[in-house]
Amino acid sequence: MQLCDEDKHLNKGDEHKRLGKDGSSWPIAFSLRSEEKQVGRWTTLSWSIEDIELYQQAPASTATEEVKDTTGSTTRYERTLYLYRDERTDYRFNLSSQDPHLFIVCEVTDEQFSPLLITAAQSVASSYMDGDYQVLHIQMPLPVQAWMEAFIGRNGELIEFKKKRCKDRKGRSSGQ
């Protein structure tokens, strides 16, 4: 049974609680900060990513902790960045950009904001950009860039090509 791309990213569940960094996964802790902003007559929450921490070993504490302060609230999360062989083209595109990013896909339900996954593939992040999800991004740390380069080096570049169509040839159903 083949999993669709969204399922592939979401089925990992809480494996980050027991895994350390390896060739294709890296547990990452980060904080999401909310701040109330005035937009016209309306007040809305604006979210940003702060305090990224890269784990080399499995995290000692996996609890999500919430810290409140006077200007807004900060919530700490841990998710694992997974690299997939079929997304190597996306990783190369991201690494080749002037400013590589990590993308955190968050679900917004009943004014609750919770991260679903962290990815380095822009196409995966963009597939979640609808009314129920918000995608935040942050500059990719240099150690993660080097780790992704090593992943691509081990697995090779993924070269996508399209078949050439001959204009003079007719299809199989043409009877010739």
Summarize the structure in short.
By secondary structure, the protein is α+β, with helices and mostly antiparallel strands.
Task: Write structural notes for this entry.
The longest helix is centred in the C-terminal third of the chain and has 14 residues, at 142-155. This protein has four helices and seven strands; from the N terminus they run αββββαββαβα. It has 176 residues and is of the alpha+beta class. 20% of the residues lie in helices and 39% in strands. Helix 2 (88-96) crosses helix 4 (142-155). A four-stranded antiparallel sheet has the order 2-1-4-3, with no helix packed on it. Mean pLDDT is 77; it is low at 13-18 and 65-71. The protein has helices at residues 5-10, 88-96, 122-127, 142-155; strands at 25-39, 42-54, 65-69, 72-82, 101-109, 112-119, 133-139.
Write the layout of secondary structure elements.
Blueprint (H helix, E strand, L loop, with lengths): L4 H6 L14 E15 L2 E13 L10 E5 L2 E11 L5 H9 L4 E9 L2 E8 L2 H6 L5 E7 L2 H14 L21
Antiparallel strand pairs: 1-2, 1-4, 3-4, 5-6, 5-7
Structural class: alpha+beta
- What's the overall geometry? globular
Mean pLDDT: 77
The largest β sheet comes out as: 4 strands, antiparallel
Strand order of the largest sheet: 2-1-4-3
Q: Unreliable runs, pLDDT <50, ≥5 residues?
A: 13-18, 65-71
Query: Any idea what the radius of gyration is?
Result: 20 Å
- Strand segment tally: 7
End-to-end distance:
37 Å
Helicity level: 10-25%
**Helix run count:** 4
